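Progress note, sequence design subtask.
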């Protein structure tokens, strides 16, 4: 793992965090902590910016981590298999390492995402459910939930939610009704200013689609400008920085475990 300095546009020294691969990362709202989901080890907590190990929370089959209201760390994990899944949502106390079980389900989920206003928490995997962020009370399932959502993002004003699986859907959070559907994208996010969505994946005109808040197309983007659209590597991860200055993309150019990381100034993406 290595941190990237936006001012110098350079990566810091790489540091080994664990003997197992980190599948999900979360940065605390105050920018002091990095939490890593380590499926075989549990949850690792590291100090930023130097990635100094702080503590580990031993858990089995951790799928997701996210910081919620009050800088609390929430963890999603799964047990069982072959149609006999059990998913657990815990809230960890970083001070003394204690935890509280907030929600459990028979669906296979574990990834987490909070709404910007910290009112809602979406949990997803094979299925998807919308929870009340403070208590973990279930508000309802996401429509067409069995289509295996692979990524999810809330709009800046927390009124809409975009998730992608076999197709990509915008839904109204209050009613949980679908209001727009397009093709498959692997990763989605809205910039912190609420002006555009970024949808990464294979596409007919590029490997990154930038849309307006209502989902209408603003522009297509290619990470390899000199190559045809059908030659672009799939984007597997797309996230805006918290200060809305950059978009980070990860592509899978050669299949397998190969990866390329791109960091684009947001202003460049918004140039027509």
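Output:
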């Amino acid at each position: 793992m290595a941190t990237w300095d936006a001012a110098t546009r350079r990566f810091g020294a790489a540091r080994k965090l664990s003997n197992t691969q980190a599948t999900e990362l979360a940065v605390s709202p105050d920018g002091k902590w990095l939490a890593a989901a380590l499926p075989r080890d549990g949850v690792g907590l590291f100090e930023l910016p130097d990635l100094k190990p702080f503590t580990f929370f031993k858990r089995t089959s951790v799928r997701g981590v996210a910081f919620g209201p009050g800088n609390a760390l929430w963890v999603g994990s799964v047990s069982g298999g072959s149609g006999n899944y059990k998913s657990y949502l815990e809230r960890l106390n970083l001070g003394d390492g204690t935890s509280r079980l907030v929600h459990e389900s028979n669906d296979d989920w574990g990834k987490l995402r909070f709404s910007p206003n910290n009112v809602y928490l979406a949990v997803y995997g094979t299925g998807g459910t919308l929870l009340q962020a403070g208590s973990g009370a279930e508000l309802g399932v996401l429509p067409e939930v069995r289509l295996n959502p692979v990524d999810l993002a809330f709009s800046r004003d927390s009124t809409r939610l975009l998730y992608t699986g076999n197709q990509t859907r915008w839904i109204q959070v209050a009613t949980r009704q679908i209001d727009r559907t397009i093709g498959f994208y692997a990763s989605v996010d809205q910039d912190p200013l609420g002006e555009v969505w970024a949808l990464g994946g294979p596409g007919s005109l590029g490997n990154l689609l930038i849309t307006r808040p209502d989902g209408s197309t603003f522009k297509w983007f290619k990470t390899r400008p000199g190559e045809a659209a059908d030659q672009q590597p799939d984007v597997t991860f797309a996230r805006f920085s918290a200060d809305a200055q950059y978009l980070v993309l990860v592509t899978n150019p050669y299949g397998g475990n190969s990866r390329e990381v791109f960091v684009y100034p947001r202003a460049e993406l918004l140039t027509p």
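The helical segments are 266-269. Work on this subtask will continue into the next period as scheduled.
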